[in-house]
Amino acid sequence: MSEASGSPETHPQPASAPAEPEPSWQGDDPREPRPDLLEDPAPWLHRMRSVAPVNETPIGIWRLYRYADCMRVLRELPAGVRRTDGSPGQAAMGGGGLSGEGGQFMLQQDPPNHTRLRKLVSKAFTPRAIEHWRPRTREIVDELLTPALEAGELEVMGGLALPLPSQLICEMMGVPVEDRKLFTDWTTRGIHILRAEFLSEEERADVQDAILHLADYFNALIAKRRNSLTDDLLSVMIRAEEEGDRLSPDELLVQSIGLLAAGFETTVGLIGLGAKNFARFPDAAAQLRAEPGAITTAVEECLRFEGPIGMTTRVLHAAAEFDGRVIPKETTVWLSLWSSNRDPAVFQDPDRFDITRDPNSHLAFGGGVHQCLGAHLARMETQEALGALVQRTSLLEPRYDRVEWGPSLFRVPASLPMGLRAA
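^ that's the sequence the OP posted. Answer follows.
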């Protein structure tokens, strides 16, 4: 779950790219899809980091590929997800958002409104609050893995990576688990609102249809819950009050949809990609079996080595210079998380999957005031899922030649069939 906006780095060169691309952007046009980079974006990102680490795209958005530059924007420079007048930046967070008013979800807001919205729900996502859910997470993982181990096979995405975080966020929020298939489809389609500027008319209609279904669903659920408040997160938001402040009906609807969507889709990708890498690198799996306590650093390495979110977005609130080039105030900047997390200036042997890497100051959860609210939840779920998958097997055997990628805005496999040998 992250305050980030997908992976525009995985967009390809235009079909009629110039023979000698303008040095700043290397012919990589963010308006064009780039499915060829889904399999392994690292080589292209290594090139961009070396040849064009600071570049302006043909549509006026700038991109940064080095860790130090991205950290500077996230932690040091005056920047946000909106312009200084409060309007959305260019392709910053999906234009109109869910409400048609520039996006009311907290990740689409800057302080003080971002601070206000986040404060009203943040208690549910503290480390202590998330640890309360670890035993239940362990139960769900066991329920999913036991029959797979008996059968000797597991389709990782449909059998573990998707059902675990989607069921847990249902239970946390008070959403009926039996409706999971409905909202997972709506969410996968609706989350593409974050790239609204690049949608075709057909894609835009599909996104809007999914969002309307989500809105109708949550309006009905909220109305029902108002008459029977419990201790779930939806009830907490309904009666949320901090220093006399409450969520308006529109804010409540948008936060509910946003938290549900952010609460599982990226974690689905993280668990799936982590399982893929433990199967790809059997020595790492053997190391984790020998050192079960290494699961904490192993998950951090999964986040660094191959996280599901390729980039995050900021709008500069003051002009800033990078490599002698001045990026003007109010400019939208895309920060490459994938490239930063493989930057050899920060990470020794960055293309090696090292589950005991320490320190590991990756940027998978962004940074600054928009640091991912659900980071503790994503970490805990992934620790339990991957820890159990590796510990309870002596072999993870990939049964696919190439990874098929799903329709998610993020880098999420469609399926990962594997053979299992129980430990």
